[in-house]
Amino acid sequence: MTPLIEVRDLYYQYEDGTQALDGVNFTLNVGETVAVFGANGSGKTTFVLHLNGILRGQGHVRVCGIEVNKDTLVRVRSKVGVVFQDSDEQLFMPTVLEDVAFGPLNLGLPSDQAIATAKTALAQVGMEHALGKAPYHLSAGEKRRVALAGVLAMQPEILVLDEPTTFLDPPAQRNLVHLLESLSQAKLIVTHHTRFAAALATRAVFFEKGKLVADGPVDEIVQRFNWIYPALDAADLRYSAQRRF
Amino acid sequence: MHHVLMDQWSQGSSPLHARDPRAKILALLVFLIVLATTAPNAFSALVIDAAVLLAGILIAGLPPISLLMRAAVVLPFSLAFGLISWLAGDRLRALGLVEKSYLSTVAVLLVVGTTPLPLLLSGLEALGTPRLLALVAQFIYRYLFVVSEQAQHLRLAAACRQGRERQRRLGFRAAAGALAVLFARSYYRAEGIHRAMMARAFSGKFALFRRLQFRLSDGFFTLAVTAFLILVRIQ
User: Fold this and answer.
1) So where are chain A's domains?
2) Average pLDDT over residues B44-59
3) Is B170:B162 a contact under the CB 8 Å cutoff?
4) Is A107 within 8 Å of B201 when comparing Cβ atoms?
5) Is A90 close to B209, i.e. CB distance below 8 A?
6) HSE (CB half, 13 Å, CA atoms) of A146?
7) A82 touches B: beta carbon within 8 Å
8) Which of A89, A106, A151 comes nearest B202 by C-beta?
9) Minimal Cβ distance to B11: which of A77, A94, A107
10) Interface touch A84/B195, C-beta < 8 Å
C-alpha cells in the first residue's frame, strides 16, 4: 500500500545559513498516529511545513503518492491539514463559519456547499453553536476546536498538529484527546507533551539538530531520550531554585 | 479592540448592511465628490450632508457616538493643516479642510462599518479596482490589526513593569524600544497568518462567502442617494 507521506533525503537551510533539516527520511502509513518529539529548534515545525509545501527544500516529499511541488500544491493541501500552534494565527475571518468555510471555498466548492461542509466540520468538533461568533471571543480550547474544524472542512487524509496542547488547560487537553481519537485520519502530532502523545500515538520519531535520529514506540523513545513531560518534578524545581539563589 | 469592533459592526443586518457593496461604494464616491465641491461656507448644504450621514448611521444601527469619536482620529491632521491655512489668512480654506475631512472620514467609516471587508474589496474589484490593489488593501487591513494587537500586548507588558514615578522619565525610551520590538513581532505574526492561509489553499484571491448581487433595490438606493446629494449641492 502507498504510504500517506513519504519523505526521502529532505534537506532545508534557512536564509541565515541554519541547517534546519539534514537528510530526513520518514514514512506515515494509513491509520497511523505518529508523535514528533525533539528540542526547540530541532527542526520539527520546519519538517511539517514541508508536508504541504509551505516550505520546499531539497529532497522528495510525496503525499498520497503525489510529489509535492509548485503544480501540486492545491491537491496536496487538500490532503494534508495543518493545525498550527497558535490558533489566533489560523482564525483570521470575521466569523467562525466564514473561517471554517475558507478552505473549502479555496478548493473551489460553491458557497452553499462550502457552508454545509463547514457546518458539518463544526458539528464534528462540537462547535456548531458558535457559527456566527467572532473567533476572538472564543476560549483557547474553543479556538483550537474551530481551527481543527477549519482543517477538517477540507476533508484531509492526514492531520498535522503542531503543539496542539499549547494554551490549553487540563480539561481542554483531555477533550482534545477524545476529539482526536474520534477522527479517522492519520495524524502527525508535534508535541513536547509525552502523556498527550502516548494517549494518541502508535509510534514516535525524534528530531535532533535537523536529523530524524530515532523512530519507534512512544515509550521507548521517551525513555531513550529522557523526554518526560513535565521535565521537572517538584523536587527538581526546588533544587534548581536553591542553586540559583 | 478597534478592528474587532469594525468587524462586528460590519456583520449587522440593517437595510444598509444588506445593500450590495457596489451600491454603497458608488454612493460614497458621489458623496465625496459632492462634499469636495461644496463651498466651505455653504453651511446649510454641509449640515444636510452631515444629516445624511447621521441618518445612515442610525439606519445601520451603528453606535453614533462611538463612530463619530473614531472619525475624530483625522482631526489632529486636518486641524494642523487648517491652522496653517488660517495663519496664512485663508480662513475659508481652513474651515473647509476640517469640515470636509471629518465628514469624509465619517462617510468612509459608515461604509466600512456596514460592509464586511471581503465584500467591500470584491465590490471595489467589480467596479474596476485592480485586483492587486484590492489584495494589498486586504493585507494592509489585516496586518494593521496584527500590529495594533501586538502594540496592545506590548503596552500591557510595559505597564505591568512600570512604576508610576518613573513612568514619565522612562516612558519615551521604553516606547522607542517597544516600537522596534513591535515591528519584529508583527512581522512574525503576519508571517504566521500568511502561512495558515496558504495551508488552507489560499491562492491570492479571497473566495466569496456570499456572491455579489446588485438588485433593483441597490440601483434605487444608489440613484436616490446620488439624486438627493446632487440636489443639495446645486441648491
Assistant:
1) 5-89+154-244
2) 94
3) yes
4) yes
5) no
6) 34
7) yes
8) A106
9) A94
10) yes
Locate A83 and state its grid cell.
493545525
Tell me if A54 and B199 make a contact (CB, 8 A cut-off). Answer: yes
CA distance A73 to chain B (A): 8
- Kindly indicate whether the ipTM for this predicted assembly is greater than 0.90, answering yes or no: no
What is the residue whose three cell numbers read 491570492? B204
Query: A141 to chain B nearest CA, in Å?
Result: 18
- Find the helix packing angle between A96-106 and A140-152, rounded to 10°: 20
> Helix-strand-coil percent breakdown of chain B, rounded to 5?
80, 0, 20
Measure B189 CA to nearest chain A CA, in Å. 7
A86 to B192: CB separation less than 8 angstroms, yes or no = yes
Contacts 24+ apart (CB under 8 A), B187-191: B189/A89, B189/B146, B189/B149, B189/B150, B190/B142, B190/B143, B190/B146
Chain A residues in contact with B202 (beta carbon < 8 A): 102, 106
Burial class (CB in 10 A: 0-12, 13-18, 19+), A235: exposed
What is the interface size between A and B, counted as CB pairs within 8 Å? Answer: 72
CA distance A119 to A135: 15
Q: What is the pLDDT of residues A99-112, one digit of tens each?
A: 899 999 988 898 89
pLDDT at B235: 75
**What is the structure's pLDDT at B116?**
85
Cell of A67: 510529489
Do the beta carbons of residue A183 and residue A151 sit within 8 Å?
no
Predicted structure pTM score: 0.71
With bands split at pLDDT 50, 70 and 90, how would you rate the model's confidence at A245?
very low
> Which CATH code fits A5-89+154-244?
3.40.50.300
Q: Are B34 and B233 in contact (CB under 8 A)?
A: yes
